[in-house]
Automatic annotation (TrEMBL), chain A:
PANTHER family, per the entry: INNER MEMBRANE ABC TRANSPORTER PERMEASE PROTEIN YCJP, MALTOSE TRANSPORT SYSTEM PERMEASE-RELATED
Chief location category: membrane
Keyword Cell membrane found: yes
Residues spanning the signal sequence: none
Highest taxon of source: Bacteria
Family: Belongs to the binding-protein-dependent transport system permease family.
The protein's name in its UniProt record: Carbohydrate ABC transporter permease
Positions of transmembrane segments: 12-34, 68-97, 109-131, 143-163, 184-209, 240-261
Membrane topology category: Multi-pass membrane protein
UniProt keyword annotation of Ribonucleoprotein present: no
UniProtKB/TrEMBL annotation, chain B:
GO biological-process terms attached to the record: transmembrane transport
Residues passing through the membrane, by range: 21-46, 84-105, 117-143, 163-189, 210-235, 273-292
Full protein name: Sugar ABC transporter permease
Keywords: Cell membrane, Membrane, Transmembrane, Transmembrane helix, Transport
Organism: Ameyamaea chiangmaiensis
Membrane association type: Multi-pass membrane protein
Predominant place of localization: membrane
Recorded family membership: Belongs to the binding-protein-dependent transport system permease family.
Keyword Iron: no
Location relative to the cell: Cell membrane
TrEMBL record, chain C:
Family statement drawn from the similarity comment of this UniProt entry: Belongs to the ABC transporter superfamily.
Pfam families: ABC_tran, TOBE_2
InterPro entries linked: AAA+_ATPase, ABC_transporter-like_ATP-bd, ABC_transporter-like_CS, ABC_transpr_MalK-like, ABC_transpr_MalK/UgpC-like, Mo/tungstate-bd_C_term_dom, NA-bd_OB-fold, P-loop_NTPase
SUPFAM superfamilies: MOP-like, P-loop containing nucleoside triphosphate hydrolases
PANTHER family tied to this protein: MALTODEXTRIN IMPORT ATP-BINDING PROTEIN MSMX, MALTOSE_MALTODEXTRIN IMPORT ATP-BINDING PROTEIN MALK
GO MF annotation, one: ATP hydrolysis activity
Keyword Transport attached: yes
UniProt entry tagged with the keyword Nucleotide-binding: yes
Cellular component, GO, one term: maltose transport complex
UniProt keyword terms in alphabetical order: ATP-binding, Nucleotide-binding, Transport
The protein's name: sn-glycerol-3-phosphate ABC transporter ATP-binding protein UgpC
Length: 276, 301, 386
């Protein structure tokens, strides 16, 4: 075999393996998306149907259950509000830590990270009781507060990592030009670290959207977001595969797209900069 | 205040600036401090109390009763064993396959970036969806697509969820976390100096030797990060259990998180649940100590 | 236009040692002052304190006689050009230059005309709509200067502005900056590592070491009358030869020393030295003469031919290494025996504590920097308009 043929062959093998593995890992999601467009009969047919008459029947049904929108809107409101509030707290915090570090900055950052290590189950009982006593059980406000606190260490860290990459001299040039602290942040820092800020916001959105511990435990109906909605399919209703798939697809699609778009920057945030 | 601090000239501007910085950092620190301490103290407090949400006759100081009760409960020990099985099983699967896949997707082939995106997709699927998707669409003994496929090739489908509940749960959670491992390890491999790989090639190292002598040592640090971050989340797997097995059959899939939940919110035994919470916090802290230390080394600026 | 005065200014960074240890200094109106000194001596710190980017721990900063310690950077009427340019990468060249005016709510038309003026001076007109990322290093440097000019500042501050440029461009920008200073006549404080920049651009050089001012003076003054060993060794390339010597005898207007196994009578006042003291004899490489009637003998160990001149490394008969600068046409080879003369009126003597002994008849300084000193601003102004 000539070296050229050998190279071509190993390249072909690589392509097949690479795509094979990718499709195998992705298959459940693909199957879910396909099943959403099947009739309930097709959804459970033996042998499984890869080619079928697409129908929107399942989606119609999911939408007709008036409460789908109720859960979806809760999800949107809670994760968007939670993200905005988290950014309002973390942008000033990360800015000060990145550009006016003191002796305590390092310790404070590590301490913030360590609060993330508190396992939610460990404090489930007191949080539940506190929320109940404050009348925050099953309210959007309650979940927003919890999500802000849950994501704050991550957003501060991520923003800190991104802000650190902005040369401090550029901010100083802004100060020489007459910018106030707010002006420095608004006119110089945020535009310069926009991709970083955007991916921080996306990560916060993703984490809030998918959060399935507090949402299941602190809400029941009023403020329940999509994870609770999907959880309700664990009952025999889940055997309506078409409907389950349509609802699941609706619940994950927006965040999946966000995730695809921001995967590169997410790495650094997720590892707190420990892996470059 | 000592005489020397009094004698030092007080810099007026600097303290003003420091106050400004404090005003920016303070709010975040304060709310996090409240979040990190108040519930913790309450958990500790409850864990020493007789406290039942529906039984007001039970109250007062319980000494170590909640702990002795918990520690003498076989369910607790089985929940610890289940937690360990789940955490270790998922770590082995995700790190093992993650490393292989990271090396795979570091190679150039047509459509690599799309394949890569497909592989990391499960990470963005919410746990309730992931669990139901696997339980029903994939593994349902009658209608699941895998069962169907097995029948097509003449095998008898397996009722995964009833016969191998914990193992199946481990596979589902591994599917969710595999992308995370791939994402981090791939990034780490790509940061490996291309010249180093080429130098190893010049030294006559084949692909296998390169994998063991160059790539694996380089990945050690990234693997540590993956192990620690996954551990933190895996210790408290909850939604997947709730929507698939609800801890069963029996207590076969009850981990520590689910045990606390069922004690406190299903059996309303706040004291017992809190004692479990304290134990969970202790375990998490041991892990966290390692994680924080490994991340801290990267903070040098 | 403005002058800047520092009075016993000190700086201690949080948790650190004292970085600036009491600097007093006056920068006159229209003067071009250069701070030089080894890395880490506090040049940037001092400049940033003047700019308002670092707090002054103690002491006073006066701009035009007004205490400015507590003023915000923008209130001080200064402009700074950073080593890394620090341009706003997300703004066009035009917006970069106009940003300060925009923050100061200057009307759009006026802003535009000021930016256009600066762009014309710096030949940046074709680039106004570009982002900094699309420009070359030299162009970025000009934008950074333009951003400073637009604000019409009282004082320009430069922190090693040319150190990121290649040698040719640095030479060109040096000339441009000097002529710009002539044109605008603005007070300028300039930090550099580069001796050539310091010598060619400065009206006055401030030599710093470890947070202290070692000497202040016109370039040739520092060159010919270094106040101490540090300045003598720091200014001038190749470095001054510094030789161990011992005082044999002192007179009112001379000191006799033994060095290199010979005796020299140096025409300096013997302030604070007596016979038997150890001192240092300094002689610049170009002042050592390679002549056949020289009294010092040695062997050439290395010869660096730079074309316009030749630098000989000579091992003298008593084993001391000497550096000698001779004409480019000097063809002496390695291994050759040479004879050197040491003209004693060009030599310097330094006490054991490092201070120079004053010359009895100080060497006249070059004509081009006659004004130089901070005490004759009028002469300086004339010099600029000449
Ligand atoms: N923000 C800071 N915090 C603590 N110490 C600092 C800080 N900035 C500078 N220093 C210290 O102060 C000293 C003087 O630093 P400075 O930057 O002024 O030196 P420099 O003369 O400009 O050096 P170079 O020529 O290398 O630019 C150094 O020892 C430096 O480590
Ligand atoms: Mg400097």
């Amino acid at each position: 075999m000539t070296p050229a043929r050998k190279a071509a062959l190993s390249r072909a093998a690589l392509t097949i393996i690479g795509w094979g593995v990718a499709l195998w890992v992705f298959f459940p999601i693909l199957w879910m998306a396909m099943t959403g467009f099947k009739s309930e009969i097709d959804a459970v047919s033996t042998p499984p149907k890869f080619f079928f008459h697409p129908t929107l029947a399942s989606y119609h049904e999911v939408f007709e259950r008036a409460n789908y929108w109720h859960f979806a809107i809760n999800s949107i409101v809670i994760s968007v509000l939670g993200t905005i509030v988290a950014l309002l707290f973390s942008v000033p915090c990360a800015y000060a830590m990145a550009f006016s570090p003191t002796k305590r900055t390092r310790g404070t950052l590590l301490w913030m990270l360590s609060t993330k290590m508190l396992p939610p189950v460990g404090v489930l009982v007191p949080i539940y009781i506190l929320a109940r006593n404050a009348g925050l059980l099953d309210t959007r406000t309650g979940l927003v507060i919890v999500y802000v606190l849950m994501n704050l260490p991550i957003t501060v860290w991520m923003l800190f990592t991104f802000f650190k990459e902005v040369p401090r001299e550029i901010l100083e040039a802004g100060r020489m030009d007459g910018a106030t602290r707010l002006g420095e942040v608004w006119h110089v820092l945020l535009p310069l670290s926009l991709p970083g800020v955007a991916s921080t916001a996306l990560l916060s959105l993703i984490l809030s959207w998918n959060e399935s511990f507090w949402s299941l435990n602190l809400t029941s109906s009023n403020a329940a977001p999509l994870p609770s909605f999907i959880a309700s399919f664990s009952s025999p209703e889940g055997l309506f595969f078409g409907k389950l798939s349509a609802a699941s697809t609706l619940a994950v699609a927006p965040i999946l797209v966000f995730g695809w778009l921001s995967q590169k920057q997410l790495v650094r945030g997720l590892t707190f900069g420990a892996v470059k | 205040m000592s005489a020397s601090t009094l004698a030092a000239p007080a810099p007026p501007r600097q303290s003003a600036r420091r106050r400004g910085t404090l005003a920016l950092v303070g709010p975040s620190v304060l709310i996090l401090a409240a979040w990190a301490t108040v519930p913790l103290i309450m958990t500790l407090w409850y864990s020493f109390q007789n406290y039942n949400l529906v039984d007001p006759t039970q109250h007062g100081f319980a000494k170590f009763d909640n702990y002795t009760y918990l520690l003498s409960d076989p369910d607790f020990w089985s929940s610890l064993a289940n937690t360990a099985f789940l955490v270790i099983g998922v770590l082995v699967i995700t790190v093992g396959f993650g490393t292989l896949l990271a090396v795979l997707y570091d190679q150039a082939f047509p459509g690599r970036s799309i394949a890569r995106v497909l592989v990391i997709s499960p990470f963005f699927i919410m746990p309730t969806v992931a669990a139901l998707l696997w339980k029903n669409l994939m593994l349902h003994p009658i209608y699941g697509v895998y069962s169907n496929m097995m029948r097509m090739v003449g095998l008898t489908p397996i009722d995964w969820m009833s016969h191998y509940p914990l193992f199946t749960l481990t596979l589902i959670v591994s599917w969710e976390w595999l992308p995370f491992a791939v994402l981090i390890l791939l990034t780490a491999i790509q940061s490996l100096d291309g010249e180093q790989k080429e130098a190893a090639r010049m030294d006559g190292a084949g692909p296998v030797a390169r994998f063991f002598y160059i790539i694996i040592p380089h990945l050690r640090r990234a693997i540590t990060v993956v192990v620690m971050i996954e551990t933190i989340f895996l210790l408290t797997v909850f939604a997947e259990i709730t929507v698939t097995t609800a801890g069963g059959p029996g207590v076969a899939t009850t981990n520590l998180a689910f045990l606390i939940y069922s004690r406190a919110l299903l059996q309303f035994d706040v004291g017992g649940g809190s004692a479990g919470g304290v134990i969970a916090i202790i375990i998490a802290n041991i892990v966290a100590a390692f994680l924080v230390r490994s991340v801290a080394r990267n903070l040098e600026t | 236009m403005a002058n800047v005065t520092l009075q016993n200014v000190r700086k201690t960074y949080a948790g650190g040692n004292e970085t600036i240890k009491g600097v007093s200094l006056t920068v006159e109106n229209r003067e071009f002052v250069v701070f030089v000194g080894p890395s880490g001596c506090g040049k940037s710190t001092l400049l940033r304190m003047i700019a308002g980017l670092e707090d002054i721990t103690s002491g006073d900063l006066l701009i035009d006689g007004v205490r400015a310690n507590e003023q915000q950077p923008a209130e001080r009427g200064l402009a700074m050009v950073f080593q890394s340019y620090a341009l706003y990468p997300h703004m066009t060249v035009e917006d970069n230059m106009g940003f300060a005016l925009k923050l100061a709510s200057v009307a759009k038309d006026e802003r535009h005309s000021k930016v256009m003026d600066a762009a014309r001076i710096l030949q940046l007109e074709p680039w106004l709509k570009h982002k900094p990322g699309q420009l070359s290093g030299g162009q970025r440097q000009r934008v950074a200067i333009g951003r400073a000019i637009v604000r019409n500042p009282k004082v320009f501050l430069f922190d090693e502005p040319l150190s990121n440029l290649d040698a040719a461009l640095r030479g060109q920008m040096r000339v441009e900056l000097t002529s710009l200073h002539r044109k605008l006549g603005a007070t300028t404080i300039y930090v550099t590592h580069d001796q050539i920049e310091a010598m060619t651009m400065a009206d006055k050089i401030v030599v710093l070491r470890a947070g202290n001012v070692e000497q202040v003076g016109a370039p040739l003054e520092l060159y010919h009358r270094p106040a101490n060993l540090f300045v003598a060794g720091f200014i001038g390339a190749p470095k001054m030869n510094l030789l161990e010597a011992r005082v044999l005898q002192v007179a009112a207007d001379s000191v006799t020393v033994s060095a290199l196994g010979q005796t020299f009578v140096i025409p300096v006042r013997p302030d604070g030295v007596t016979a038997g003291d150890g001192v240092t004899l300094g002689i610049r490489p170009e002042h050592l003469l390679h002549v056949s009637e020289g009294t010092l003998g040695g062997v050439v160990t290395l010869s660096e031919r730079l074309g316009s001149l030749t630098i000989l490394h000579v091992k003298s008969d008593d084993g001391t290494m000497l550096v000698v600068q001779t004409a480019g046409s000097d063809t002496t080879d390695v291994g050759a025996h040479v004879r050197l003369a040491l003209p004693t009126d060009s030599a310097h003597l330094f006490r054991a504590d490092g201070d120079a002994l004053p010359h009895v008849a100080p060497r006249p300084l070059g004509p081009s920097h006659s004004g130089g000193g901070s005490d004759i601003p009028a002469a300086q102004t004339e010099h600029f308009h000449a």
